[in-house]
Write a structure and sequence with these properties.
360 residues, alpha+beta, elongated
């Protein structure tokens, strides 16, 4: 890295820190004023409000990093143009891509950092903030109960139907179990009023057991107060109503949960799309850097204003595009991986096309 790169990084670094603090402050104030009347109605103390602010701070940092980098790069490029320094730089044979290489490296590092920051810190503080607000504002606690669903165990050729899953008590009600043999003939069926998780497998209560022989004749019907379903080893979290829960899981936990959904034959496309979004959302910082850097060399007048405005518009288009592809993936019109990453690859290509076409 040469003296020129250190010079532009110095300009960038000062503006980045200022804008980062500014946007964090704005986000915190928006969150406070959005709930101010609720705080007053519930007589929430200043100390508790400040605790909410502290819990929300990591998420504010995560939100503020991309927009701060966009503004800082646009300002840096605009300043160089305004002082005619960029003309001298380009006339010396340095291309725009080579000039902004430190920004691209910073963008990649920031994306990786944001991913692990979100995964290890933001996830926990957002959860703590939500739980604290539920207590302070007397909001109803979210539940993960689930009604009327089915799942299967491919290894034992068993299909299960459940009327209701109670997440708080880790119990099920209205269970129907149907098992087939290797020839796909009925082997066993169980109707149970209730099932409880014992830490290793599910225990069925108040059961009716139906058994068939190899010719398909029903040979046994009996009642049983308790039946240990040792093959039914899916953990209770597998059956939770998913909601926004992927956002509150580490990527390792989320991957295990999705694998459990697949094994149980439960819907997993939305969860898998959200899982990939954990990675693609972290890359939004790199996309913003690429757009701001490439667009920064496209104007000759009103450089700061036009660069900032164009970068903002391009970033908004990227986020809207990502929302559309996510929705399509969640509804089965695109593979989950494509729904999460197509916008990223498209805008990377657009960014480097702009680098090539920008006159220097």
């Amino acid at each position: 890295m040469n003296t020129l790169h250190w010079m532009i990084l110095k300009i960038f670094g000062i503006i980045f820190l200022i804008t980062l603090l500014f946007f964090i402050l704005i986000l915190e104030l928006v969150d406070i004023f959005a709930n101010i009347w609720h705080y007053m109605d519930n007589e929430v103390s200043l100390g508790d409000i400040l605790l909410v602010v502290v819990y929300y701070l990591p998420k504010c940092i995560s939100y503020a990093v991309p927009i701060s980098m966009l503004f800082a790069i646009s300002f840096t490029m605009g300043t160089l143009y305004a002082n005619n320094e960029l003309i001298a730089i380009f006339n010396s044979g340095i291309s725009l891509l080579k000039l902004v290489t430190p920004f691209l490296v910073l963008g990649l590092i920031a994306s990786i950092g944001v991913f692990f920051f979100e995964d290890q810190i933001v996830m926990e503080t957002v959860k703590a903030k939500r739980e604290l607000e539920q207590v302070l504002l007397k909001r109803q606690t979210a539940t993960y109960n689930r009604s009327n669903f089915s799942f299967r165990n491919e290894e034992t050729r068993t299909v299960y139907k459940v009327d209701f899953y109670d997440d708080a008590n880790q119990t099920m009600k209205g269970i129907l179990l149907v098992q087939k043999d290797e020839n796909k003939n009925f082997k066993l069926s169980i109707k149970a009023v209730k099932a409880e998780w014992n830490g290793e497998h599910w225990v069925l209560h108040n059961c009716q057991l139906y058994s068939w022989n190899q010719t398909g004749d029903l040979i046994v019907v009996k009642n049983q107060l308790q039946y240990d379903a040792t093959d039914m080893q899916q953990e209770p979290k597998t059956f939770r109503e998913s909601g926004a829960e992927i956002a509150e899981m580490s990527f390792i936990t989320a991957a295990d949960w999705i694998e459990d959904l697949k094994k149980a034959g439960l819907p997993y496309v939305k969860a898998l799309t959200d899982f990939y979004n954990k990675f693609s959302y972290a890359l939004r910082t790199l996309i913003v850097v690429i757009l701001a850097s490439s667009i920064g060399g496209a104007f000759k007048k009103n450089i700061l204003l036009m660069s900032l405005l164009s970068s903002l518009i391009a970033s908004v288009i990227f986020f809207v595009f990502q929302m559309v592809t996510n929705t399509m993936a969640q509804n089965g019109f695109l593979p989950p991986f494509a729904g999460a990453f197509v916008p990223f690859f498209v805008f990377v290509i657009i960014g480097f096309i702009l680098f090539k076409r920008t006159r220097t």
